[in-house]
UniProtKB/TrEMBL annotation:
It is found in: Cytoplasm. InterPro entries: Coproporphyrinogen-III_oxidase (IPR034505), Elp3/MiaA/NifB-like_rSAM (IPR006638), HemW-like (IPR004559), rSAM (IPR007197), rSAM_horseshoe (IPR023404), rSAM_sf (IPR058240). Residues 1-234 form the Radical SAM core domain. It comes from Slackia equolifaciens. Its main location: cytoplasm. Transmembrane segments: none annotated. GO terms for molecular function: 4 iron, 4 sulfur cluster binding; coproporphyrinogen oxidase activity; metal ion binding. This is Heme chaperone HemW. GO terms for cellular component: cytoplasm. Belongs to the anaerobic coproporphyrinogen-III oxidase family. HemW subfamily. It comes from the Bacteria. Pfam families: Radical_SAM.
Length: 370
């Protein structure tokens, strides 16, 4: 269908050295010298060149190379992919180009090469700086390797993010506090904080069901999630999204694109593409349509997704939405009454309680256009 230009590009590299016991992402553990990785990377490069020839990369403003563990595929393969991107689109310093990495495969040499070829933001999957918790999470790096990887990244990159996890079995508030303080002391510019979720069909789920592993304590997770803004706020970070904290100028523009209705192109296995125009929005994954929204549903989804952001939505946006969704004003008044949303300075913004009860908050908005 005729569509608005894609502004964000996601590239999925589904390979890891080891698949963690809690992971339910589209990944596979595979030998680093496997021909399957070479074949996959060659196909990705062909896709990049084809999309460029079709004109689909001309308006790209953010690129995100995720996984899996992109750093695991190594310098040579990543260099080939980044070179293809560089000759296929305007991969200038103004384009935010993020790449995920894990500590065990993030070497100084790889950092040097991806930086030279246009990556300007690294996101490192630390999860914790506590060796006992890393063992519980089935990670293959230790705290010393995590710290060394972050320090090495900061030698070239000024935009470095780390992921931290809370609610890990055996994790105390003091242990999570130590992780937050270590992140601050290392000098990263962005921190994402995620509560552990025990997903179905994972080893963690089987371990919980058998009594081998303690189940997630949602009260403990909420307590730790509530600690993050205090510690990080004192260090000059601001919370801009339910799970994300950044120093000024270092918000992840690619992630914000997902929450603000920006069309995005996904390349690689399981990558999702969101194609839209004024009246229709489609999401396609592996050649299958997984979402097909009309104009009213698009409007409701945009309001819902923006409530993941601290800024929420403006009163003017809600008034305009009422033209398509007559009940929207009543819904937002109800969310304010139930303390899921606050109304300040001409905006509706999520409260901490609203985020902790996200399914309730988001569901009441999205149900405006079933």
């Amino acid at each position: 269908m005729p569509h608005d230009p894609y502004k964000a590009l996601y590239i999925h590299l589904p390979f890891c050295k080891h698949r963690c016991a809690y992971c339910d992402f589209a990944t596979q553990a595979i030998a680093s010298d496997s021909p399957a990785i070479d074949e996959y990377m060659d196909g990705l490069i062909m896709d990049v060149r084809r999309k460029a020839k079709e004109g689909e990369l001309a308006a790209i403003e953010t690129v995100y190379i995720g996984g899996g563990t992109p750093s695991y595929v190594g310098q040579k393969r990543l260099s080939s992919l980044l070179y293809a991107l560089g000759v296929s689109m305007n991969l200038t310093p103004e384009v935010e180009c993020s790449m995920e990495a894990n500590p065990e495969s993030l070497t100084p040499e790889l950092i040097r090469d991806v930086y030279a070829l246009g990556v300007n933001r690294l996101s490192i999957g630390v999860q914790s700086f506590d060796d006992g918790l890393l063992k519980t999470l089935d990670r293959i790096h230790d705290s010393a390797r995590a710290e060394a990887a972050v320090r090495a990244a900061l030698e070239r990159f000024e935009n470095v993010s780390i992921d931290l996890m809370c609610g890990i079995p055996g994790q105390t508030p003091d242990m999570f506090l130590a992780d937050l303080r270590k992140a601050v002391d290392l000098g990263v510019t962005h921190v994402s904080v995620y509560p552990l979720t025990i997903e179905d069909h994972t080893p963690f789920r089987r371990m919980v069901d058998s009594g081998e592993l303690e189940d997630v304590n949602e009260e403990h997770e909420a307590l730790m999630m509530g600690m993050a803004p205090n510690v990080l706020g004192e260090a000059g970070f601001h919370r801009y999204e339910v799970a994300s904290y950044a120093k000024d100028g270092y918000e992840c523009r690619h992630n914000k694109a997902y929450w603000t209705g920006v069309p995005y192109l996904g390349l690689g296995a399981s990558a999702v593409t969101m194609t839209q125009n004024e009246s229709r929005r489609m999401r396609v994954q592996d050649g299958e349509v997984v979402d097909d929204l009309n104009r009213r549903q698009m409007c409701a989804e945009d309001l819902m997704m923006k409530m993941r952001m601290c800024a929420g939505v403006s009163e003017e946006e809600v008034r305009k939405a009422a033209l398509l969704l007559p009940g929207v004003l009543d819904v937002f008044r109800g969310l304010v009454r139930d303390n899921l949303v606050k109304r300040e300075n001409g905006r509706y913004m999520p409260t901490l309680g609203g985020w902790l009860l996200g399914n309730e908050l988001y569901g009441r908005i999205f149900e405006l256009a079933p």
